[in-house]
Amino acid sequence: MNDNLFSEKDSLELISQMLRQTKRNMEVGSGNIFLYYGYSAFIISIVVFVVVYFTANQVWAALWFLMFVPNIVIQIKNRKERPPVVTYMDKAIANTWSVIGAMFMLTIIAIIVFGFYIGFCNFALMLPLSLLYAGIGTAITGVIMNVKVLIYAPLMAFFVGIYMLAVLVSTNEATVFWHLYFGLAFIFMMIIPGHVINRISKQQCLKN
Amino acid sequence: MLKELNPLIHSQLRLSIMTLLLSVDEADFNYLKEQTNATSGNLSVQLDKLNEAGYITIEKSFVGKKPRTACRITQAGQNAMAEYVETLKTYFKGL
In this structure, is residue B64 part of a structural domain? Predict the structure, then answer.
């Protein structure tokens, strides 16, 4: 690069060129995080449903804590491979999910604390709240990424979550089928959008 | 009389680095090298100059066993770029 011949016009062209180069395109596998969580939730929902249904023991619902496994796997993977570039969009999405993650943790802690106070821990509340939290996170991610399927995909989860809360308020009883509803909601909220995002990102990369 | 463009930014490679860093939150050395087509040595020298001017921060770490150099633009760097672009605009006024 010869700086002596670098004119003001070159400077302007260079700025435009560099800005074009950093124009955000999705990478192949952008939807994988949604797929990790989506498939985990779906598989766990079936396992929990089958075990609780056939043993009639609600303790098995504790298997839902396995939902933290994908998070641990993703954290380890991220530590081993840092991305070469972090855009403001990546940062906004990561911060959104950090807040959602913190809400999950705080809800669990609150349920345990209140459980000690009243003498009974009822984790049934975690299912509708998780659907609402994850739904909010997915919709915000959709708005940031400008991917419509992510904005509207959580509607099913909102519907199921609100239904569960309404049932809890009126009858105070959660049925074993809630586990299946939860898994079903995740198909619409994470699995389908995850595959759609991967398809879009693959097409984008083929074009470039 | 036209104002002089900031000489620290008005260099092909340094301007490329500053523009790239302005549009992302963080970029590593290899990404900058790939985008600017610069050699490692030249890029390293220019990054040091920008770092000394307080326009960027350089954070060296290890990811596994591999060294990683992450660069970010600072507030002073953003201000300098804004001023640079404003000055640049004056060169094209009336065209």
Answer: yes
Domain assignment present for B1: no
| Residue among A12, A22, A81 whose CB faces B88 most closely | A12
User: Max Cα separation, chain A?
Assistant: 80
Point out the residues of chain A with pLDDT beneath 50: 1
Q: Is B2 inside any structural domain?
A: no
> Which of A11, A27, A76 best tests the B interface by mutation, with the highest count of B CBs <10 A?
A11
Question: Tell me, what's the pLDDT at A66?
Answer: 92
> Residue B19 is part of a domain; what is its CATH number?
1.10.10.10
Interface ipTM > 0.90: no
Extract the residue ranges of chain B whose pLDDT is less than 70.
94-95
Q: What residues of A are in contact with residue B63 (Cβ under 8 Å)?
A: 79-82
**Which residues, 6 or more positions from A3, have their beta carbon under 8 angstroms from its beta carbon?**
B11, B12, B13
How high is the mean pLDDT of chain B? 92
Domain hosting B25: range is 12-92
Q: What does the pLDDT read at residue B6?
A: 92
Q: Which of B5, B25, B43 best probes binding to A when mutated, by most A CB atoms within 10 angstroms? A: B25
Which of B10, B24, B34 is closest, CB to CB, to A11?
B10
* pTM score over 0.90: no
